[in-house]
Amino acid sequence: MSENEAFYEPLGDGRYASTPATAGPWSPAFQHGGPVSGLIGRAFERHDPVAGTRVARVTVEILSPVPVAELQVNVRVVRPGKRIALLEGEITHEGRQVVRASAWRIMAAPSHLAPVSHAPDPPPLPGSTPPFGDWAGAHLDGYLSAMEWRPVEGAFDRPGPGTTWARARIPLVAGEPDTPLVRALTLADSASGIGGQLDYAKWLIINTDLTVALHRDPAGEWLCMAASLDASPGGSALCQATLADPSGECGRALQTLLVDEQT
Q1: Are the C-beta atoms of 18 and 6 separated by less than 8 Å?
Q2: Residue 186 carries which DSSP code?
Q3: What is the pLDDT of residues 196-255, one digit of tens each?
Q4: What is d(CA 181, CA 212) in angstroms, rounded to the nearest whole number?
Q5: CATH H-level, domain 8-108+131-261: superfamily
Q6: How far apart, in whole angstroms, are the C-alpha atoms of residue 189 and residue 193?
Q7: 12 vs 8, 71, 91, CA distance in Å?
């Protein structure tokens, strides 16, 4: 379990100190994309909010490994509007851009709209949290331990497709509760780990981006993610996932991945 109180400590003026809980499985020095995505999503929600609207889609472009260090977050509106607005943002470290992102903020649909859903109900939440398996060489004391995982099918150390329930043990930013969007973004970048079917000992697999689209805000702490990965010789890999809460599916996630031989 993570000993940190949050993924980030606010420093004021859009600056944040990254705690060790943000570290990904490949190195304690570099962050997992989940907290990074949550941080820029949080900034989108807070920037010039308009009553009756919601952030429905966030795309995060990961330009380089994000260090576990102080970060600066900046957001602006590039297409203002009462019903539809496009926002852009960036995360920098020591003046260098490491993440850029965009988001669509749209007017919430009328409350009398009849819901439409084609997804099956998610599997029940397992009653206990198993320990991690033997994931050789992985850094388990950062993000992976800061999240609570209850796998239904597959796991990080077993080939996918996979399905897991998960929640953060700590808030994204110290001293404040996570919003539904933040919870979804903090989890969604784990899709390629849950759904991956390629041998990490043989293949280098790195996602260049993450897109999360939510047709409604998820409710509650626990989210269920079902993920699968497709890869083609001479091409690349694509991971897609569904996101659900206990009442049903609420959105989708998509990642583009580089695949290369380990050297």
Answers
A1: no
A2: H
A3: 888 877 888 889 999 999 999 999 999 999 999 999 999 999 999 999 999 999 999 999
A4: 9
A5: Acyl-CoA thioesterase, double hotdog domain (2.40.160.210)
A6: 8
A7: 12, 11, 15
